[in-house]
Amino acid sequence: KQQHWSLLTSSSFPSEWKNNFPNCGGQRQSPINIITRKVKHDPKLTSFIFDGHENVFNMSSVRLRGGGLPATYKAVQFHLHWGENGGQGSEHSVDGECYPMELHIVHIKEKYGSLGDALNDSTGVAALAFFFEVLIPLVIEALGKVREIEDFKLTDIIPQANKLNYYRYLGSLTTPGCDQAVVWTVFQQTLPISKKQVQRDFFFFLLFNTDYNHQYLRRMKADLNSNASFFSCFS
Ligand SMILES: [Zn+2]
């Protein structure tokens, strides 16, 4: 019936997503709460190799490889998740700790033409998640007032990501249809934001922030083994 199901409908509670999208009730769903005493060191998880991150930004030239990934991936989308009224708004959490803001950089295997194509592959999508230490109200205020930033580079905002520790798990899109096609990388170190960066770089991210209405991304976390308590960073 709901062929044109939308995140913006008032009945779209995440707990009901599985009624229309069976994957949303699946076994490898995202986001998760990462329990650090349960993670194991994996020597296959090497440093990332970033291509195009030091150049003036051009989405089609950003490549990601290494990091234990099975292929080379290309960037297709950026977006941020944040809380309302200054609250915590990250999607993932670590030992139950939430963060004010979480950046997702979404990549697909180089061989695919679109995100849709990649979703049929269990490792078709590689998503990088970065936590930010502070929420910047300006980011929210600026919605709908985006402007071009001509000389933005990814390295302006992501410091030497190949030196950061990260957590790895196989998960899903965090919105319907919850496709279980995502290799998630959640970086351990949080990123600071300066006022200067807000003025400049975060307007840039808003250019890529058109896919979701984040007010509705209130998904409860799935636990990897799913018998732990469920909670959400949006409370
Ligand atoms: Zn996201």
TrEMBL record:
Which SMART domains does the record match to this protein?
Answer: Carb_anhydrase (SM01057)
Q: Spell out the protein name for this chain.
A: Carbonic anhydrase
Its family remark reads: Belongs to the alpha-carbonic anhydrase family.
Record gene name: ca4c
> Organism source for this protein?
Sinocyclocheilus anshuiensis
Per the record, its GO cellular-component terms are: plasma membrane
Q: Which residues cross the membrane?
A: none
Q: Which UniProt keywords apply?
A: Lyase, Metal-binding, Zinc
**Residue limits of the Alpha-carbonic anhydrase domain?**
3-233
GO MF annotation terms = carbonate dehydratase activity; zinc ion binding
Q: What is its EC number?
A: 4.2.1.1
